[in-house]
Design the sequence.
């Protein structure tokens, strides 16, 4: 065995990682339709309809009002909180013509230029970002 | 008899595929990331593997939230590069090896690994980018490919220990296939990266390199790293490295490193690459 057999302890640890939303079953259930909506943008004909009228396209999906609003304003951190998964949300920002680097930088609270420079300089250090509880 | 002659670990960053497709590999940003694959391309021209068992994860492409298999093996004749939202990559069709794939699927199920069998699917950057990195840009891929898709998106993914043990079962399956085939196994994904939230951009060069160190030799330490350590130390997407352990498990008791490469960054990610051969 690699780790715990206690699913509750296993899941509880995920909340101790700063600035990170682990895609657990709870989030997968909350975001089911949000992620399936995003998945629908894999098809070129759906992308066309989506680009023509985002609001109307969203109305076809059983999303919460919060989820719809967060999609419309492309608030990716909020979408993660509402059950979105980055690989599904990638269909939305790819349709916008954004790269992973561009979209991910928006979640870090940094400008694309500053974020890119940080990556070229070796990325974000894990120092102090491993555990909220243990401050390490 | 079929035999596993080598293992490769490599990142599968989509931007690396895009850089190759758009002819940008000589640009100063990209050149050092690709330089570490030149040795491997020359080596592969001599090795001429018949089949590559390619361990990767699907990124919401062939599998959406409807069905989430933990371990899925491609038993089809061929797989097309997927349209991931910006049109399919213009790379060759991936030719499968249904005889060996079904043999592995059957053997693993009898060996108590309950595999999902896939007969039709498109393959995304997780599978096609490693082919491009290792084989370059040929008219047709020089080896047949057995896709082995692992869920590392929805928690919990399989444990590192389970991945290693699956690799051992795959090796037993390959060894019992009667045809004389030169088979490689590749583990892909990683290394440290986080694509989400305020901690996005996390990279842990020291941890990544200790992981590469421990793929060599007879250490079994890597199979016991818990998920939480990958998450804390290597970012939320660093968990993809459990897939390298299927490759390592399939190489048996001990290994020797033939080639190793590490570069930061490609887009959001630390690029890691290693070529291993099994030792008796």
Sequence:
């Amino acid at each position: 065995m690699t780790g715990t057999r206690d699913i509750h302890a296993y899941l509880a640890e995920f909340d101790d990682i700063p600035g990170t939303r682990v895609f657990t079953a709870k989030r997968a259930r909350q975001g089911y339709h949000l992620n399936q909506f995003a998945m629908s943008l894999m098809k070129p004909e759906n992308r066309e309809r989506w680009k023509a009228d985002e609001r109307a396209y969203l109305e076809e999906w059983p999303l919460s009002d919060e989820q719809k609003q967060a999609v419309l304003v492309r608030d990716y951190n909020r979408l993660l909180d509402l059950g979105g998964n980055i690989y599904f949300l990638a269909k939305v920002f790819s349709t916008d013509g954004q790269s992973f680097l561009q979209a991910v930088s928006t979640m870090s609270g940094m400008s694309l230029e500053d974020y890119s420079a940080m990556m070229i300089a070796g990325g974000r250090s894990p120092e102090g970002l491993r555990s909220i509880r243990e401050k390490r | 008899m079929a035999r596993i002659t080598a293992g490769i670990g490599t990142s599968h960053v989509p931007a690396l595929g895009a850089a190759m497709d758009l002819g940008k590999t000589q640009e100063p940003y990209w050149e050092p990331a690709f330089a570490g694959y030149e040795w491997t391309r020359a080596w592969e021209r001599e090795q001429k593997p018949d089949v590559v068992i390619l361990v990767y994860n699907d990124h919401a492409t062939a599998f959406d939230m409807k069905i989430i298999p933990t371990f899925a093996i491609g038993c089809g004749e061929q797989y097309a590069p997927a349209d991931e939202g910006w049109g399919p990559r213009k790379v060759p069709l991936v030719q499968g090896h249904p005889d060996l794939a079904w043999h592995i699927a059957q053997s693993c199920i009898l060996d108590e690994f309950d595999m999902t069998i896939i007969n039709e699917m498109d393959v995304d950057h997780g599978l096609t980018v490693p082919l491009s990195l290792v084989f370059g840009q040929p008219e047709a891929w020089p080896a047949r490919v057995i896709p082995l898709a692992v869920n590392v998106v929805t928690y919990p993914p399989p444990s590192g220990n389970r991945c290693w043990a699956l690799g051992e079962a795959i090796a037993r399956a390959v060894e019992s296939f009667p045809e004389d085939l030169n088979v490689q196994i590749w583990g892909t994904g990683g290394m440290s990266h986080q694509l989400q939230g305020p901690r996005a951009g996390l990279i842990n060069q020291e941890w990544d390199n200790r992981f590469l160190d421990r793929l060599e030799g007879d250490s079994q330490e890597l199979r016991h790293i818990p998920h939480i350590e990958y998450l804390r130390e290597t970012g939320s997407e660093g968990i993809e490295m459990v897939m390298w352990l299927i490759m390592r498990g399939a190489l048996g008791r001990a290994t020797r490193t033939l080639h190793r490469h590490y570069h930061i960054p490609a887009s959001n990610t630390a690029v890691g690459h290693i070529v291993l051969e099994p030792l008796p």
Q: What stands out?
A: Residues 3-196+207-227+241-257 of chain B form a domain with the Protocatechuate 4,5-dioxygenase; Chain B fold (CATH 3.40.830.10). Residues 160-175 of chain B form the longest helix (16 residues).
